[in-house]
Amino acid sequence: MSFPHLQSEVYFPDSLIESLEELLQGYPEDKVFVVTENNTERLCWPLLASNSVLNKLPRLVIGTGEESKSTDTLIQVWQFLSDNGADRKSLVINVGGGMLTDLCGFAASTYKRGMHFVNIPTTLLSQVDASVGGKTGINFNGFKNEVGTFALPQKVYINTEFLKTIGEENNKSGFAEMVKHGLIWDANHFEDLKKFDLDKMNLNELKDLIARSVVIKEHFVLNDPTEKGIRKALNFGHTAGHAFESYAMKKQKPMLHGYAVALGVIVELYLSCRKLNLKETIVKEVAVWLIDIYGKFEIDTDDFQPLYQLMTHDKKNEGKRINFTLIPEIGKFEIDINCGREEIFEALDFYRTL
Ligand SMILES: NC(=O)c1ccc[n+]([C@@H]2O[C@H](COP(=O)([O-])OP(=O)(O)OC[C@H]3O[C@@H](n4cnc5c(N)ncnc54)[C@H](O)[C@@H]3O)[C@@H](O)[C@H]2O)c1
Ligand SMILES: [Zn+2]
Questions:
Q1: Quick one: pLDDT at residue 143?
Q2: 209 partner at 20 to 30 Å CA-CA among 1, 6, 22, 132?
Q3: In a 3-state reduction of DSSP, which class is residue 15?
Q4: Contact, 181 vs 192, CB < 8 A?
Q5: Mind listing the pLDDT tens digit for each residue in 68-86?
Q6: DSSP state of 29
Q7: Nearest ligand 1 atom to alpha carbon 135
Q8: What is the pLDDT of residues 284-336, one digit of tens each?
Q9: 1 within some domain
Q10: Whether residues 151 and 181 fall in one domain
């Protein structure tokens, strides 16, 4: 199955093995490497290991989880490439979620000043977001994605079979980014996402929805690769979302990124109503739908100031000005809408009383 409307090399192959065999023909036999992590080695690699050529490729298995997105693991990947004689004509195949594709994309984009890499994203979040768009990086000095590059993978291969093992929470987390795509760019996509049954997870239906989300993400990436302007649309839900994410972490009730984004979307829908006249009925309807899926991280009025503070620390803002991407209606957006403390408190109060 192919999606000709996709503008860069993102594929939804019927046979991932055949596509990889074809890809390998473009590289010297001993110059292709694979990186997996503990979970994807156990749960995803077996889908490819039946192919003896693939299974013979030198393979590095790194640690799982966000804490592996570190300088230590980065060095491990560089060391592996160096020990195995990788050069600028070599290829790394990244098999994993966003942690792995970010880290290994960074490793590949810096090794010998840049070598080829392809992503095989294995979580919904990485399929609709992390593996597409060319942002790579690692966490450093306590900050997320502090060091990184813009580097595009040669190809991205998306296979929904991998999603069978990732569990409800991780699937829902990725789904929130898709909801965001619909809200900023495509009202039909949003409506179809609303109809999608997350409990049944029909993978064929999901494949089509993923493809539409990828097209939306690509639209912004292609038109603004280094996030100087309209790519900021993709930040919808994220200014408030990152604040929820950090605050939950501080309170030792960590929440997955997509869950925080969903709550951030609610706050920013309210601000969209206040600043851009998004219909109040839409704000309420979408908020109730999202809480139904993601549950509610309870806050009270004492939490407003620390949440606001976290928003001002968002690295995309200078000083105390808080710039949001907001939507005047579903499927449209405006960037750099400046909101003040009172408006943000009001939005948090709307969320609190839902
Ligand atoms: N580059 C970008 O544009 C971009 C965009 C969004 C997020 N990100 C990054 O992506 C990361 C989050 O992505 P993620 O949620 O995929 O994280 P992740 O890679 O840590 O995966 C989440 C969990 O799922 C497991 N897993 C992966 N595939 C699996 C499978 N098929 N079956 C069972 N378990 C599986 C992982 O081992 C991990 O425990 C963050 O580091 C974030 O910064 C990057
Ligand atoms: Zn996000």
A1: 81
A2: 22
A3: coil
A4: no
A5: 999 999 999 999 999 999 9
A6: G
A7: 1
A8: 999 999 999 999 999 999 999 999 999 987 655 555 779 999 999 999 999 99
A9: no
A10: no
Distance 224 CA to ligand 2 centre (A): 17
Nearest ligand (C-alpha, residue 242):
2
Are 137 and 233 part of one and the same domain? no
User: Which CATH number fits the domain that encloses residue 18?
Assistant: 3.40.50.1970
Q: Which of 101, 166, 261 to mutate to test the pocket of ligand 1 (most atoms within 8 A of CB)?
A: 166
Q: What is the CATH number of the domain that holds 333?
A: 1.20.1090.10
Distance CA 277, CA 283 (A): 10
First-to-last alpha carbon distance for the chain, in angstroms, is 43
43 lines ligand 1 (CB under 6 A): yes
Nearest atom in ligand 1 to the alpha carbon of residue 105 is 1
pLDDT tens, position by position, 15-74 = 999 999 999 999 998 999 999 999 999 999 999 999 999 999 999 999 999 999 999 999
Residues 6+ apart with CB under 8 A from 168: 198
CB of residue 131 inside a 6 A radius of ligand 1: no
Which amino acid belongs to residue 61? V
Q: What's the number of domains the chain is made of?
A: 2
At which of 146, 165, 184 does a domain end?
Answer: 165
Kindly state if the Cβ of 165 falls inside 6 Å of ligand 1: yes
The rounded mean pLDDT for the chain is 93
Segments forming the whole domain that contains residue 161: 10-165
Ligand nearest to C-alpha 125? 1
Residues 266 and 199 in one domain: yes
The answer to whether residues 197 and 342 belong to one domain is: yes
> What is the pLDDT, as a whole number, of residue 2?
41
- Rounded to the nearest 5°, which phi and psi values hold at 219? -55, -45
The residue whose C-alpha atom lies closest to atom 8 belonging to ligand 1 is: 130
